[in-house]
Design a protein that fits this description.
3 domains; alpha+beta; 8 strands; 3-stranded antiparallel beta sheet; elongated; 5-stranded antiparallel beta sheet; SH3 type barrels; 18 helices
């Protein structure tokens, strides 16, 4: 080809020393034109037809590969092959040209593999199992290994050595590589443990105060876990921190379908007392207490009569108290509440008294785990409880406020009116 080009140039009246320069320039132009035409045909014709076929078939995975430009990147090999084939036209530089083209092809192949792995991740995410077993971390590990192997192959092509010889000499730098890829190795181990133990899934609500995380898991990668907090900020947590530190995962609550209410009402101890007959008659008229009061009164009366208890003294025998009746009311109220989960534990208990009074703790689960709805249900329940407390002759304990002190001071006999 070169000889023909030189003859054509000489026929145009160009003589030495410009013949060689002109022939080289002409061949470069010809190769560039052929390479450009090959590239144009591949991308504008073949890829266009392939894209039309992919979009028209019933499969989805090839659409993802098309979007991730797998075929586009693969098409770049065609002009490189054209240059490789025509390299012998330049005898003195053929070896260098072909070596450069081979390196370029290796790089193209690496980019194709990268796009394929990205496509595999997107395809996998379209399945429900991806929420339970994310593979993005593993794909990143495969990418790292691929690029390391690619770098070794490229270096071997540059220095004309067998890649195995280069690999055998890497033992000396293994310690350095361990330091460089320390985070990747820790992330890989963490990813395996997280996946095998099903500790975390995309979409899980987690709390990790050490990192300021309180929200839903957005992404799980080799090195990090992204959490979208409820205030719309994003917290990035190192993957290995989820193994070395503790965190709270609320997935169990969502799967159980019940969200816990655990809150206490503090009763003023000085308001606790025995129920009078008038109080019991009044309580019997309350829907949630009718059966309880009748049953309890009969039980207590039978016990006192059986043991010859003198009922003239309130401290003798058994008697109903206002705080006990109040607990029974709250228990029945929650049992009949439409937004309380019937399958999970329901309990109203009295905790040890303290400086803030006697705690009556409500321990139940709502049947709606959504945050806004949960807060509304909880608020409605305690609104009702606070409203009915005075009906039982009880008072809610609270620290004296400025208003209380002022009112007490104004009623003092030592203050002139």
């Amino acid at each position: 080809m070169r000889e023909k080009t030189i003859k054509i140039i000489e026929g145009m009246g160009i003589r030495d020393p410009y013949t060689n320069i002109a022939s080289v320039a002409a061949m470069i132009v010809v190769i560039a034109v052929i390479s450009g035409i090959a590239n144009l045909i591949t991308k504008k014709v073949i890829l266009a037809l392939l894209g039309r076929y992919i979009r028209g078939n019933r499969f989805k995975w090839d659409n993802v590969m098309l979007e991730k430009k797998v075929f586009n990147r693969l098409a770049n090999i065609v002009p490189a092959l054209v240059i490789y084939i025509f390299a012998p036209v330049f005898p003195d530089q053929a070896d260098i040209i072909q070596r450069a083209v081979v390196i370029a092809i290796y790089i193209i192949i690496l980019r194709v593999i990268d796009a394929l792995l990205n496509s595999a991740d997107v395809i996998y995410r379209s399945y429900e199992i991806s929420r339970h077993k994310p593979i993005k971390g593993y794909i990143q590990v495969v990418k790292i290994i691929t690029y390391i192997i690619g770098a070794i192959v490229i270096i071997s092509a540059l220095i004309k050595q067998n890649p195995i010889i280069i690999l055998s000499g890497m033992g000396a730098v293994s310690a350095i590589l361990l330091v460089i890829f320390k985070d990747s190795l820790l992330g890989l181990v963490a990813g395996i443990l997280i996946s095998s133990n099903d500790m975390l899934r995309i979409g899980d609500w987690i709390e990790m105060p050490k990192y300021g995380a309180d929200g839903d898991v957005m992404d799980i990668t080799l090195h990090t876990v992204k959490v979208m907090n409820f205030d719309k900020t994003i917290t990035t947590i190192p993957s290995y921190a989820l193994i070395s530190d503790s965190f709270r995962n609320w997935r169990g609550m969502v799967e159980a379908g019940g969200r816990r209410i655990k809150r206490s009402v503090y009763i003023d101890a000085t308001s606790v007392g025995f129920c009078t007959e008038e109080m019991l008659e009044s309580f019997e008229k309350i829907h949630y207490l009718t059966d309880y009061v009748k049953s309890k009164r009969g039980e207590i009366q039978e016990y006192n009569e059986k043991n010859n208890i003198d009922s003239n003294q309130p401290v003798n025998g058994r008697r109903m108290t206002n705080i006990g009746t109040f607990r029974a009311y709250v228990q029945n109220y929650l049992k009949n509440h439409p937004r309380i989960h019937k399958e999970l534990i329901q309990m109203v208990r009295q905790l040890p008294p303290g400086e803030h009074g006697i705690p009556i703790e409500i321990y139940v689960f709502t049947n709606d785990t959504r945050w806004i709805n949960y807060e509304g249900i909880q608020a409605d329940i305690f609104d009702h409880i606070f409203a009915v407390i005075p009906m039982f002759g009880l008072r809610v304990f609270q620290e004296p406020t400025g208003y209380d002190l002022r009112d007490a001071f104004s009623k003092s006999p030592f203050v002139s009116q």
